[in-house]
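User: I'll paste a sequence; please echo it back and then give the predicted structure.

Assistant: Echoing your sequence first, then the prediction.
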Amino acid sequence: MNNLLSVNSPIVAGTLLVLVLLSVVTWSIALFKLWRGLQDGKRNRAFNDAFLAARNWHEAAASGRAG
């Protein structure tokens, strides 16, 4: 591992830096999408509960506009 970080070539060092940065960006996007998916799931469950609890079509329509 010490050998990997003590490269003498600027091309190898630059490539390694770019790969690390892109990896961080990729993981950030993946975690953001996971977080948003969990939020969307909560909202979907809340909507389904409100929609299915509606006693008539007007209340059901109102549950769709409430969010």
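The helical segments are 2-5, 10-53, 57-65. Residues 2-65 form one domain.
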